Amino acid sequence: MYKKIISLNVLLIPLAIIVGWTLSKATVIGKVGIHFLHREYLFLNSWWKGALLVWGVWIVLEIIQYRIWKRSRRNINLAIQTSFIFLAVLGLYFTYLDFKTFSHGLLGDRFHIGGYLFWIGWVIINIFFIKLRNDKIKTEENRD
Questions:
Q1: Exposed/middle/buried for 7, CB within 10 Å: 0-12, 13-18, 19+?
Q2: Which of 48, 59, 71, 92 is 20 to 30 Å apart from 84, CA to CA?
């Protein structure tokens, strides 16, 4: 069980690094806007700070979903994980719409890719826990 979660994080850590790197690649106009107007996002200018934040959020989501996975039956787990996938796709869609506004459009395509990859990472976590539940059921059936 824990080996599978470690393997999930082996996938998520490089993805978080890519997200952090792409978020740090805003255009010059975007970086000026962050520096002068939105100082709370200055951490995005450093790729490793963005990567740590993204990975930290994913870890929190993993912990929440792990607890759901441990405490719920298969049908409830599947419904919750599917709902989370829907929320992630909805977040991806609203991120896309938000990036089409003029001010966020100035941040550049590389920055936008980082935003989209964040949501894709959450979908990967959801699929992992759906598959983990199915693997657990298959191993329990094999024991009988």
A1: exposed
A2: 48
- E strands, 3-143, are none
Angle made by CA atoms 119, 23, 41, in degrees to the nearest 5: 100
Q: Phi then psi for 25, rounded to 5 degrees?
A: -100, 40
Q: Write down the pTM of the prediction.
A: 0.86
Instruction: Measure CA 114 to chain center.
Output: 10
How many CB atoms within 10 Å of residue 40? 8
Q: What is the pLDDT along the chain (144 residues), one digit of tens a residue?
A: 778 889 999 999 999 999 999 999 988 888 888 888 888 888 888 999 999 999 999 999 999 999 999 898 889 999 999 999 999 999 999 999 998 887 788 888 889 999 999 999 999 999 999 988 666 656 565 665
d(Cα 53, Cα 128) in Å, to the nearest integer?
21
Phi, psi of 101 (to 5 degrees): -70, 160
Q: Token pair of 10, please?
A: 């082996």
Domain boundaries, given as residue ranges, for the chain: 2-138
